[in-house]
Amino acid sequence: MTKTVNQKAWLFVLPVLILVAFNAFIPLMTVVNYSVQETFGDNTFFWAGLMWFEDVLHSPRFHDALLRQLTFTFTILAIEIPLGVAIALTMPRRGVWVPVCLVTMALPLLIPWNVVGAIWNIFALPDIGLLGQVLNGLGFDYNFTRQPGAAWFTLIAMDVWHWTSLVVLLAYAGLVSIPDAFYQAAKIDGASGWAIFRYIQLPKMKRVLTIAVLLRFMDSFNIYTEPFVLTGGGPGNSTTLLSIDLVKVALGQFDLGPAAAMSLIYFLIVLLLSWVFYTLMMRNEDS
Amino acid sequence: MSLEVRGVTKRVDGETHIHPTDLTLEPGAFNVLLGTTGAGKTTLMQIMAGLERPTAGTVWFGGTDVTGVAVQTRNVSLVHQQFINYPNLTVFENIASPLRVARRPKAEIRDRVERMAALMKLTPMLGRRPAALSGGQQQRCAMARALVKDASLVLLDEPLANLDFKLREELRDELPRLFADRDCVVVYATTEPTEALLLGGTTATLFEGRVAQVGPTGTVYRQPDTLTSAQVFSEPPMNTAAVTKRGETFEMSDGTTWTAPEAARGLPDGAYVFGIRPHHVTPHPTGAHPVALDGLVLLTELSGSDTVVHFRHGEGEAAETWVSQAHGIHALRVGQVARLHMDVAQGLFFDRAGARIAA
Description:
The structure holds two protein chains of two kinds.
Chain A: H1 8-35, E1 37-39, E2 45-47, H2 51-58, H3 60-90, H4 97-106, H5 113-124, H6 130-137, H7 148-176, H8 180-189, H9 193-221, H10 225-230, H11 242-252, H12 256-282
Antiparallel strand pairs in A: 1-2
Chain B: E1 3-12, E2 15-25, E3 30-34, H1 41-49, E4 56-61, E5 64-65, E6 76-79, H2 91-101, H3 106-119, H4 135-147, E7 153-157, H5 165-179, E8 185-190, H6 193-199, E9 202-207, E10 210-216, H7 217-222, H8 227-232, E11 239-246, E12 249-252, E13 257-259, E14 270-276, E15 281-282, E16 290-303, E17 306-313, E18 320-327, E19 337-343, E20 348-350
Parallel strand pairs in B: 3-8, 3-9, 6-7, 7-8
Antiparallel strand pairs in B: 1-2, 1-4, 4-5, 9-10, 11-12, 11-14, 12-13, 14-20, 15-19, 16-17, 16-19, 17-18
Keywords (chain B): ATP-binding, Cell membrane, Membrane, Nucleotide-binding, Transport
Family (chain B): Belongs to the ABC transporter superfamily.
Pfam families (chain B): ABC_tran (PF00005), TOBE_2 (PF08402)
């Protein structure tokens, strides 16, 4: 039996292979390369083995950044997902207001990240910003450049403002796809508003909400620009999330080996937690 | 307890969905609403259920006006054409849901759900979720949920339309048995004349938001008041032809003449619309008064154990496409000129406005 080998076929696959090689595989392998070697910046390399990985995993600085990252991500998920669903539930299902609501909702998503950071930086300034003035006027001592608590509050408010819309749009898409007949059936059964939400709307939104949780999880875990523009990770290290810490190590201190090891650990954490989320939310799906 | 619809109309955005309609629906037999998609069956049912408010008119149940009464407080069941079940509840919980809302005791719920599941052949599936069931089982689950609560008004909106042929026949046979010992008004909407005939009871033919005719199913089928009612209640569509009566003979537009069948002898001379159902037009002469009809065969198809032949009769302007439906398999080739036979004794005569002329 002879197999026909079509050499020309390679030509068709080649562009995508080159593309993937340059935008994913080669950079990733470069990072792997750095993570197991020591370099002093003069292009001489020494084998370091797993030393950087051990260093990073034992470093209190990494632990703190990771803890801040987890706190940030789970806080914004706990706010954005329920809030997004709640807003989607109040939006009209049909009529002239639908496009108005959708466009209004989509607006924050259209603003570049660094602009969002700049907007909130100025908005929250205690002396000239509207938010800062109002909070201080109400008697709160609020200064996000000095108080860690205020910085966290601003950071979370900013993320909620920027990204809840994404959850709203996804949840809304799930809601409008429910046929009227489901609502009629529930009405006839005498189901309460809560029962309709619990037994019809929520199960029917499950798939889009899984996507919303995954997107928001991954994006918020990788967040860099907004806290960087807001306080640069401060005051002190209080809002130094993983990505900000990573950039400090890699570009600030130019410790390429530890930074590379940290990148890989960071990447694996995102991958692992995404898998956990997905598995948890999709269990029972086909039972 | 009967359901009465009095002068009900429904207009949405200036468009009339239901023209003034009066209907009385009695318990004890199926009340069939027969009409094509868009005839207003669903709208009418939603008004009966209380899911929609009529623009004008009232709905009465057992002598009380229930027009404005919320659907939750009426004792109504509705089965949709789509299979509607709670996706993350098991079949047991789905069937039990209306009883749980009504706060029935646990033991009673278990008992009633199990009996209903046995009736619907769902017992082995009680622990599963709707997504794990076949289409027929999903619809049986939806029906079980509608029937378990002993509603006094049960609305079935094309419940079998989304099922495959075999299951449809099976469930259709089961339906009359399910309602046999119930004292409730059952309304059944369908687009299929055969389904109406099989279910019996009373049929109302609907066309473009109006009731064309109401009466015992057999009567509406055999003695349609109007051409519209006859067309709604005929599948394949009824064949029609313009005919002129002169003395004892009828003449068709292509010149075919035949002597008047006994029942039509008394009609005064003049122009009529002659209607005959496809199964009275056959490849071999049948019935009391067969008349030969030559036609060019356009299409033949097998439908169950019947042969359906579409053929063109007449020339030029006067050409009409007719349909013949005959039991058995008949070898007719497309493109061939065939001689078919219509039993004019089974024909119906309408005046030009479409009202049937009973001779």
